[in-house]
Design goal:
alpha/beta, Spore Coat Polysaccharide Biosynthesis Protein SpsA, Chain A, 8 helices, single chain, 235 residues, 25% strand, two-stranded antiparallel ribbon, globular, 35% helix
């Protein structure tokens, strides 16, 4: 099973708030966020980790060149600036077509034990995809997840509805079948990951929600302290 990281964003909000490092290199308790993810993925049996970064931050590229030499798992780096996370996923997709895979963004913060259970659940599942979800809402524009009583995903919504207990945590475990949907989204000029996810439902893929206690994103400078407190069990 392969793992993939979208790290092609500019991190403009962080830089505007005084954070000097590019987002992938922002440190939580002394470890760069991208290093943390690669280590966690290796611990969960990754055959390879594929990362996309933009071509405007040479510091990130240099860091990953060094990381590739010491990583516990093979690391493939794609350097390309893209207009959206969905387009970044598309650039990663040629390396993910052969088997099941897990995809996330570089600033997604979660508990390692919950992630390990999530990966094991997906490996044992016969579904076409499994999405990490949480009922903890600390996102400026959350994507609400509609589910039935068995946590089968019925829809993705910009606003809460009667069947939306959870929001997306931004961690996606998918089968190669999802790549076909992604390619069609690109051909039809769609953008944004949430539209791709809606198309998965429209295409009839069987998706299951997997609840995490809490998932955080690091979008603002204040989120760094919040994430460190969360990982230390203080929040």
């Amino acid at each position: 099973m392969k793992f993939a990281i979208i790290a092609a964003g500019e991190g403009s909000r962080l830089s505007q708030e005084g954070v000097r490092l590019p987002k992938p290199l922002v440190q939580l308790e002394g470890t760069a966020m991208i290093d943390r993810l690669v280590h966690i993925f290796a611990a969960n049996g990754a055959e390879e980790v594929v990362v996309i970064i933009n071509n405007e931050v040479p510091l990130t590229k240099a860091h990953l060149t060094g990381l590739a030499q010491t990583s516990e798992v093979p690391l493939r780096v794609i350097v390309k600036t893209t207009p959206s996370s969905m387009h970044s996923f598309y650039e990663l997709s040629p390396y993910l077509k052969e088997d099941r895979f897990c995809l996330t963004t570089v600033d997604t913060i979660f508990r390692e034990d919950e992630f390990a259970h999530f990966i094991e659940a997906f490996k044992a599942s016969d579904k076409d995809g499994m999405m990490a979800v949480t009922d903890y809402i600390d996102d400026e524009k959350p994507l609400y997840i509609g589910t039935d009583k068995n946590l089968n995903i019925t829809g993705f919504y910009d606003k809460p509805a009667s069947d939306t207990k959870y929001i997306s945590g931004g961690i996606y475990c998918l089968t190669p079948q999802a790549i076909g949907t992604l390619e069609r989204c690109i051909r039809e000029g769609m953008s944004r990951m949430r539209n791709f996810q809606r198309q998965l439902v429209s295409d009839g893929l069987r998706l299951e929600a997997y609840p995490f206690s809490k998932i955080l994103d690091v979008d603002h400078a204040g989120d760094i302290t919040k994430a460190e407190a969360f990982l230390n069990g203080k929040e």
